[in-house]
Specification:
single chain, 525 residues, 67% helix, 21 helices, two-stranded antiparallel ribbon
């Protein structure tokens, strides 16, 4: 990036002096994104652009995937649930491995797995193989926390590391949203142009993912700090069991119907298993999910917000796409859009997310990160609740999704940066990884729950056969749940201390967590 060369050579950023609360001298130069170090942010912009393409590309194609593999629209959510469930396991593992062995190394590993899974999607002969490949592709969810950790480590040598991380994260997330726009529009257009060669449509994003592997291998520098410890394999196994039991119970509800009691009991058992999992993690010196971090007054509201936000930003994508494709002349609801038209709806939503992400740093500087987070959560909840009365036409749906998208974009940018700012030294990877973990946990649970809701009361056609569309009551349930959880997140953020996520010296006291037992960490030596 061109601004890299503007830093004066005679005075490195470390010697910049503060005068009260103003930063003078070379500190002004460090306010630029490039000050974080070399072209790092520029390369990470490409990585997250590709992540956005993956997130947006398949959404307008979900109904086509269902017809291609021969399953119900409501079951599209099981694809999302499987991917999010694997992400919930993979993200903390990769984040922890990043803290132990290097964030760039783990970024490369996850990119290679994503590339391989994308290729398998294109040649999958049946739903089972497609489901496995779709789930494995979800390891790209680890890219953002790994990148935030990389930028945070680079920014720690500067005068205002929290602000620098927010600016860099805002730029990276803006690239994600831009990629999602390109992916959504491209997926719809490519899907229409090559409808007879659907394998080619599914393969197209793989080219960019291979490019990510090359860029990370050749251009992204490794983080310098290392944390002592090891990956908690038992914790990963316990988390897998918890998620499998919960998702399995909801699957049985979908198959056997909501009137059967035992599938609900299986789901409840999965929720109860969370308790021994948390207790085990708290007893470990190097846990997979460091719940000690949650004891910080600045951290727990952020992580709770991430989980509640995951319900809408991850769990509602499939229903939005299938509702837009549902033919109102057949079912009495839906928008009846073609694949290419759905891509425009998704594109409009993601453009609003891009605007929200791009304005996050600017608004935070003029108010506070805490206030920005609260406002973003309120916007997200309002947008989804507007869909309950206003879903009868394309302009109504698009207007509601723009409101939700503005808030969602700001939250996507704000949450990992807030977690990094609130984290103790040496645990930024864990903190940002935990943000994504809680987000995908919320999305995974929501996707499975929404699949059950959409299948309940499935419409019956004139000839007596069951239609392939989800029920209208199910879609209303999705919108209400998304709106209420976002507003609940706004309430949780009210409890965040006023100085949280800032570079104010007093904010350092908010980052303290209970000390871990066992081997000392490198930063404590």
């Amino acid at each position: 990036m061109a601004v890299i060369t503007t830093l004066p050579r005679q005075r490195p950023p470390l010697v910049a002096q503060r005068e009260g609360t103003r930063v003078t001298g070379t500190a002004r130069a460090t306010g630029r994104i490039a000050g974080i170090g070399g072209g790092l942010v520029g390369y990470l912009v490409f990585v997250e652009f590709t992540s956005g393409v993956l997130q947006g590309y398949y959404i307008p194609l979900l109904s086509d995937v269902a017809r291609h593999l021969g399953f119900h629209d409501a079951d599209v959510n099981w694809l999302e649930a499987a991917q999010l469930m694997l992400s919930a396991i993979a993200v903390p593992v990769l984040a922890k491995l990043g803290d132990l062995h290097g964030h760039r190394r783990m970024l490369l590993v996850s990119a290679a797995v994503t590339a391989a899974a994308t290729v398998v999607l294109a040649v999958a002969p049946n739903f089972a193989v497609f489901l496995v490949a779709w789930a494995l592709q979800g390891v790209y969810a680890a890219w953002l926390p790994l990148q935030v950790a990389l930028t945070h480590h680079r920014s720690r040598r500067l005068v205002d590391p929290a602000a620098q991380t927010r600016r860099a994260t805002g730029l990276i997330v803006a690239a994600l949203q831009l990629g999602a726009i390109v992916g959504a529009l491209g997926g719809g257009q490519i899907g229409s142009a090559f409808a007879g060669q659907f394998w080619l449509v599914l393969l197209a994003p793989g080219i960019l993912v291979v490019g990510v592997c090359v860029v990370v291998q050749l251009r992204v520098p490794e983080s310098e700090d290392r944390e002592a410890g090891a990956v908690d394999a038992t914790g990963a196994a316990l988390l897998s069991v918890v998620l499998l039991v919960i998702t399995g119970g909801l699957t049985f509800v979908r198959v056997n119907g909501t009137g059967e009691l035992w599938p609900w009991l299986v789901t409840a058992l999965g929720l109860l298993l969370v308790v021994p999992f948390v207790r085990y993690e708290l007893s470990r010196p190097d846990p997979l999910v460091d719940f000690r971090v949650l004891r910080s007054p600045s951290m727990w509201p952020v992580q709770l917000t991430a989980g509640l936000f995951g319900v809408s930003v991850l769990g509602a994508q499939g229903p939005l796409s299938t509702f837009a494709r549902t033919d109102p002349e057949v079912y009495g609801y839906g928008l009846g859009l073609t694949t290419s038209m759905v891509s425009i709806v998704i594109g409009g939503y993601v453009i609003s997310m891009l605007l929200g992400a791009g304005q996050f740093s600017w608004i935070s500087a003029r108010t506070s990160p805490r206030t920005t987070l609260i406002g973003a959560a309120v916007l997200t909840g309002t947008g989804y609740l507007l869909l309950v009365p206003f879903h009868g036409s394309l302009p109504q749906v698009l207007a509601s999704m723009v409101v939700a998208g503005l808030g969602s974009g700001a939250l996507v940018a704000a949450l990992p940066a807030a977690a990094a700012a609130a984290a103790p030294a040496g645990r930024t990877g864990v903190a940002t990884g935990l943000t994504n973990t809680t987000k995908v946990l919320g999305g995974s649970f929501a996707s499975a729950t929404f699949a059950v809701a959409l299948a309940s009361g499935a419409p019956v056609l004139v000839d007596g056969s069951e239609g392939t569309a989800g029920s209208l009551s199910g879609y209303v349930t999705v919108w209400v749940v998304c709106g209420v959880t976002a507003l609940a997140a706004a309430v949780a953020l009210v409890f965040v201390p006023r100085l949280a996520f800032s570079d104010d010296p007093e904010a350092a006291d908010l980052r303290s967590v209970a000390p871990a037992t066992g081997p000392a960490r490198e930063e404590d030596a």
